């Protein structure tokens, strides 16, 4: 390059720097916004440093093939560097600002002030949400409702006796034992405790021999029912009803009288004894003792029972199965030596397989778990071939022989420990699946011993 051409190029660069300094002299100065440009970044030509680094690496391996450069390197001009520094100080270029500090300088709000503002907004929304929960769930009184969903206001023209009936219906209903079996072709009903579930039949008829084509139906009597709810909002999951085979009621009464430690000749319990029995069945330790002994009896002294589950909203088999499995695993702490073997682990796997791979359980369709006198568990679920509109319910006037309409066999569990732990989930221990259902069943059990042994059917009081 000739000296004249080099001088001309330097003059153009100096003029451009001076023009830039003049054009931006009226902008606000911010010398601390960006550090001054280092000498390494102002070398001329612009990529001389990069070219020098790459050239040194190449020359180490290829010294023989290197050729002299066409133009000699140009040293940086100190005057040009000074002009660039002055231009940068006069007009600092905005850099990437991840936290928005430059924006806050323009708006007059600091980063700390923005964080305080966001924290106040979050706290306000949280306090409003908690306030709504406190007002709606704790502070405001909960008026009982009719079974159809109508509210029972305090100032409504309803007698005290009817109010008590509706309050009992909301709690799950109180069921006791009658003296005679039902001789009609249809059955009576009791409120389910949920407006999403139809009334519960006082008697259901389940197969006496679940295996076989020609099944003989056996009568089961309702002892109590309640609603299973989850979370502090009281979200209803399903309605649970507990039934006892009518032919097994005498054995059940003998178990209850034996628990009271009364003379063997006694056929009923006095009022103080019934109160003591109720307190024991509702206590943590007493309920575990009674139901463990009650469920461990076999054959001649065994009691055939059934749990009828009706979802209040559409759900599926895996959801119900997982809840039961968690409850069973939680109750294995009661007499853990009974469950400490590999066979019980296999039984839990087979219990899961009974409900695995199946479709949803529609709202209002019943699912029945039957436990025979030897502890074997039989599961019945909704039949998908029977539509909801075609379903015949005992609570809606269906005949006794149509009790199993819309139900099909899901599977059998021959290990009695599975049914034992599952029944304990509802009735024994400190934490049960439904406290309302346990209270209702305990009321029914207490009424069993208030009349002579051999009394059978249940009635609503």
TrEMBL record:
<dbReference type="InterPro" id="IPR016087">
    <property type="entry name" value="Chalcone_isomerase"/>
</dbReference>
<feature type="transmembrane region" description="Helical">
    <location>
        <begin position="122"/>
        <end position="140"/>
    </location>
</feature>
<dbReference type="InterPro" id="IPR016088">
    <property type="entry name" value="Chalcone_isomerase_3-sand"/>
</dbReference>
<feature type="compositionally biased region" description="Low complexity">
    <location>
        <begin position="51"/>
        <end position="67"/>
    </location>
</feature>
<feature type="region of interest" description="Disordered">
    <location>
        <begin position="45"/>
        <end position="76"/>
    </location>
</feature>
<feature type="domain" description="Chalcone isomerase">
    <location>
        <begin position="218"/>
        <end position="442"/>
    </location>
</feature>
<keyword id="KW-0472">Membrane</keyword>
<protein>
    <recommendedName>
        <fullName>Chalcone isomerase domain-containing protein</fullName>
    </recommendedName>
</protein>
<dbReference type="Pfam" id="PF16035">
    <property type="entry name" value="Chalcone_2"/>
</dbReference>
<dbReference type="GO" id="GO:0016872">
    <property type="term" value="F:intramolecular lyase activity"/>
</dbReference>
<keyword id="KW-1133">Transmembrane helix</keyword>
<dbReference type="InterPro" id="IPR036298">
    <property type="entry name" value="Chalcone_isomerase_sf"/>
</dbReference>
<keyword id="KW-0812">Transmembrane</keyword>
């Amino acid at each position: 390059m000739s000296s004249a051409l080099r001088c001309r190029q330097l003059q153009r660069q100096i003029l451009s720097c001076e023009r830039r300094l003049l054009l931006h002299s009226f902008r606000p100065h911010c010398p601390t916004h960006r550090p001054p440009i280092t000498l390494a970044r102002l070398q001329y030509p612009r990529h001389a440093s990069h070219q020098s680094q790459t050239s040194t690496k190449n020359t180490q391996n290829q010294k023989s093939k290197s050729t002299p450069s066409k133009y000699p390197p140009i040293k940086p001009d100190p005057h040009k560097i000074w002009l660039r520094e002055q231009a940068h100080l006069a007009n600092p270029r905005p850099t990437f600002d991840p936290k928005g500090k430059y924006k806050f300088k323009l708006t007059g709000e600091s980063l700390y002030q923005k964080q305080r503002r966001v924290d106040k907004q979050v706290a306000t929304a949280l306090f409003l949400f908690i306030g709504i929960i406190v007002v709606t769930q704790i502070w405001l009184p909960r008026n009982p409702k009719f079974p159809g969903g109508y509210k029972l206001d305090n100032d409504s023209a309803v007698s005290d006796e009817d109010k008590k009936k509706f309050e009992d219906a909301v709690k799950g209903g109180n069921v006791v034992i009658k003296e005679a079996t039902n001789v009609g072709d249809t059955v009576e009903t009791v409120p389910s405790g949920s407006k999403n579930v139809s009334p519960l039949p006082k008697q259901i008829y389940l197969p006496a021999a679940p295996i076989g084509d020609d099944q003989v139906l056996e009568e089961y009597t309702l002892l109590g029912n309640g609603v299973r709810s989850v979370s502090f909002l009281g979200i209803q999951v399903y309605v649970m009803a507990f039934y006892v085979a009518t032919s097994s009621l005498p054995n059940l009464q003998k178990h209850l009288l034996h628990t009271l430690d009364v003379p063997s000749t006694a056929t009923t319990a006095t009022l103080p004894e019934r109160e003591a029995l109720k307190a024991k069945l509702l206590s943590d330790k007493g309920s575990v003792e009674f139901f463990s002994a009650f469920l461990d009896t076999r054959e001649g002294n065994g009691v055939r029972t059934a749990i009828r589950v009706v979802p209040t909203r559409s759900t599926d088999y895996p959801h119900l199965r997982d809840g039961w499995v968690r409850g069973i695993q939680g109750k294995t702490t009661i007499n853990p030596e009974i469950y400490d073997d590999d066979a019980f682990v296999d039984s839990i796997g087979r219990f899961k397989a009974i409900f695995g791979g199946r479709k949803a359980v529609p709202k209002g369709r019943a699912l029945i778990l039957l436990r025979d006198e030897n502890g074997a568990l039989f599961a019945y679920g909704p039949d998908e071939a029977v539509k909801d509109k075609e379903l015949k319910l005992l609570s809606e006037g269906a005949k006794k022989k149509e009790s199993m309409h819309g139900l099909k066999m899901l599977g059998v569990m021959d290990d009695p420990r599975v049914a034992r732990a599952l029944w304990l989930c509802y009735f024994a221990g400190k934490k049960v699946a439904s406290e309302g259902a346990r209270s209702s069943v305990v009321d029914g059990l207490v009424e069993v011993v208030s009349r002579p042994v051999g009394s059978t059917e249940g009635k609503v009081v």
